[in-house]
Amino acid sequence: MFSKKTVLILAGVLLVTVNIIFLAIAVKRPPAWGAGRLLLSFVAPFQAVAARTLEAARQLWQEYFQLVSVAQENERLKRQLEAAAARAHLQRETELENERLRDLLGFKHSLPQPAAAARIIAKDPSSWFNTVIINKGAADGLTKGLPAVTASGIAGQVVEVSAHQSKLMLIIDRSSAVDALVQRNRVRGVVKGASQEECTLDYVMPEDDVRPGDSIISSGFDGVFPKGLPIGTVSAVLGQGKDFFKEVQITPAVDFNKLEEVLVILAPRPSAPAGPR
């Protein structure tokens, strides 16, 4: 059995075919007046149906092309919108980077020694070490042992150097140590890395007055970090630990989860020897 759609298509084709046949006969041999009227009355309904069918087909064809054109236009506009969104995203990233670099540049002018701005290009995936790779090296004046800082405070120390890259050990690494002072009363200790987000202030005597909220700064006695740079804030004082000293927890001043650029403080250049007088 034929489907309803197939029957309609065949009927339409038949109507058009019959109409064409009658028109061909009428053109070749014009009928008499009476016969012509009879033929016209017979053919007219077929012509009307054929005309409506052809007009519907024409409109359908036009609508199809219009839909195709609209779909193509939508796809073009979608691509333009995606490209505009990508440009806006890159522009925003550039603006944020410029803001961070302006902060670093302003802080750089306050340092007593020259410094080189560096971008972090990789992080150590291991949970045992907290080190990063920066995009400056020996060609930029970096050497092993130089301190790295941000406008917020101390970030770490250079531990390996190649021509154009260096490895930076962050102060939250368990191998890191920074000689420090409690800014309020000058109690001295050593800040050591403890975890991804914390440090400890070690060698604090039981009688030393250290309180949550105290600011911890570099003492300058380790010969690495200049004196007075922020290290962090005391988050908890847990009393005497197993080794006789107080257990003091420090929240670093630098947010290492968001660290992207640092300033590496360069070693002062040796002054040229004075010539003979």
List keywords for this structure.
277 residues; alpha+beta; Thrombin, subunit H; 2 domains; six-stranded antiparallel β-barrel; 36% helix
Textual characterization of the structure:
The chain is of the alpha+beta class and 277 residues long. It has two domains: 9-66, no CATH class; 115-265, Thrombin, subunit H (Beta Barrel), CATH 2.40.10. It is built from two helices and twelve strands; from the N terminus they run ααββββββββββββ. It has helices at 4-28, 33-108, and strands spanning 115-123, 131-134, 147-149, 154-161, 166-170, 177-182, 188-193, 199-202, 215-218, 230-240, 246-252, 261-265. Strand 3 (147-149) and strand 4 form a beta hairpin. The protein is elongated.
At a glance:
This protein is of the alpha+beta class and 277 residues long. The protein has helices spanning 4-28, 33-108; strands spanning 115-123, 131-134, 147-149, 154-161, 166-170, 177-182, 188-193, 199-202, 215-218, 230-240, 246-252, 261-265. It folds into 2 domains: 9-66, no CATH class; 115-265, Thrombin, subunit H.
